[in-house]
Amino acid sequence: MTDAMPVRLTPSRKLRPLALVAATALSLGVGITSPAWAEGPITPQTQLQTLPNFVNLVKQVKPAVVSITSHIRADVAEQEEGGGGGGQQMPFPFPFPFQMAPQQQPTHRTVEARGSGFIISNDGYIVTNNHVVNGATKVSVTLDDGTTLPAKIVGRDPKTDVALLKIKPNGKLPFIELGDSDNVQPGEWVVAVGNPFGLGGTVTAGIVSARGRDLNAGPYDDFIQIDAPINHGNSGGPLFSQNGKVIGMNAAIISPSGGSIGIGFAIPSNTVKSVVDQLRTSGHVTRGYLGVLMQRISPTLAQALNLKPSEPGAPPEGALVAQVTPGGPADKAGLKSGDVVTALNGAKIKSVHDLVVHTVSMKPGTDATLNILRDGKPQTITAKIGNMPKDGEGQDASSGDDSSQSGSGKIGISLAPLSRDMRQQLGVDDTVKGAVISQIAPGSPAEQAGVRPGDIIQAVGNTAVDNPRAVLTAVRGVMKNKQPILLRVLRDGQLIFVAIAPAGSDTDDDGSDDAN
């Protein structure tokens, strides 16, 4: 038996530190299994991906994108510069269309402006923005091959900023198809093609930043926000998904400098398709109509209505029905003041704007299934969508004898009865019941809630009231439970709800009226 011989390690064989070994292994592409840590930060495992290549897409769709030149009346052009087309008052300091001839003298009756558009049929129908051709005395279209043709305005819809043109081509034209914008997801790649600053055939790419943007530019705003660079002249140009379908029409930017800062907006293709189909058929647009005055649900209103948030801290959801138009579709279906609409045809309604956009997009005569909350209990009703009045009136909208000074010191209002003189002042007849708010204490919960002198209180919660004493009794009953006081008031001929938080509680506004 021999003793084991000692082994001496030469310098070249000495063990290196573990970190160095791991780094070397990784540089050689050898996988190292990380030990399981009980605590510590998450280490993401990602895969390298290449950026998409849009060459083939652009080659195929570009021939269907056109440049549009409009000779616009000078007075309309000035309005466009001041805030958008079609009376929309778009909130952009440098709105489309871009004026290509600002050097012209004021004595000239027209100015030249350029935008973009795209062909949707082989016989020459072209879609663009309303503000590109609004007030135009002459419109011409330049095709991708350089051919310029005169164009006729088939129809315009200022409320959605969509217009339809028609040219007479020498042969069949290449055209593109409107896709389904409901499937668009934030983060997906998109391509914009257009005529920025008169540079026709310009291609830019980016991603969808958000959906459903309401910019208060029009009554039915539902923009897709993108970061693909678009500039003056891109108005009316198509926004493509990776499968070559048009998912939007570029319409506006927000920019302090007039150039792209990565905040652009496109009209969803489903909106464009609905409007264009009607313009092509009849030259005008009809919209769905329910016949209700709706109101935003503030946190205080939600508490007064006993509405539970979807999760703790979440904002209130739904649209509160403040008033129902007598004889309208909603009235015939049984919708009542105080109902909260939570879904329409399965689509969740988070706000008044959601309900407006969904309703107006529906074809008159179709059935609408409404999920509502009535006195806190879910119900389902079916209404037949009507045709919105052309003049816009009645449209759905996103509202001293006995106790002459009967007031609630804790909420800050003084009340007066509906005397003959008071009815004459307010312009209401004998059929109107309630008590008039005569004074409001400065800084009081009532003032913070948005209550106004001249409002006629007709109900406190579900309790109808017809005189100041009845109001005071009902208010005291609610305050015993330390709940917000829900008032149904008549203001300028419209019923709205106002929630007043008791003194010492957080208060907010009563929510804005909206029509639909």
Can you offer a commentary on this structure?
β3 and β4 (125-128) form a beta hairpin. The strands form 5 sheets. Strands 1, 2, 3, 4, 5, 6, 7 and 8 form an 8-stranded antiparallel beta sheet that branches. Strands 16, 17, 18, 19, 20, 21 and 30 form a 7-stranded antiparallel beta sheet that branches. The protein is of the alpha+beta class and 516 residues long. The chain is elongated. The N and C termini lie far apart (102 Å). The chain contains 11 helices and 30 strands. It has 4 domains: 56-166, Thrombin, subunit H, CATH 2.40.10; 181-281, Thrombin, subunit H (Beta Barrel); 289-387, Pdz3 Domain (Roll), CATH 2.30.42; 406-515, PDZ domain (Pdz3 Domain, Roll), CATH 2.30.42. Residues 1-34, 82-107, 399-409 and 505-515 have low confidence and may be disordered.
Q: State the share of residues found in helices, binned by percent.
A: 10-25%
Please write the CATH class name of the largest domain: Mainly Beta
CATH topology of the largest domain: Thrombin, subunit H
The structural class is alpha+beta
- β content, as a range? 25-35%
Radius of gyration equals 31 Å
Number of helices, counting only DSSP H or I runs of 4 residues or more: 11
Number of strands: 30
At CATH level 2, the architecture of the largest domain is: Beta Barrel
Domain module count: 4
Mean pLDDT: 78
Query: Any idea what the shape is?
Result: elongated
Distance between the termini: 102 Å
CATH superfamily of the largest domain: Trypsin-like serine proteases
Largest sheet: 8 strands, antiparallel
| Low-pLDDT regions | 1-34, 82-107, 399-409, 505-515
Keywords: Hydrolase, Periplasm, Protease, Repeat, Serine protease, Signal
Region (Disordered): 380-416
Family: Belongs to the peptidase S1C family.
Biased composition (Low complexity): 395-414
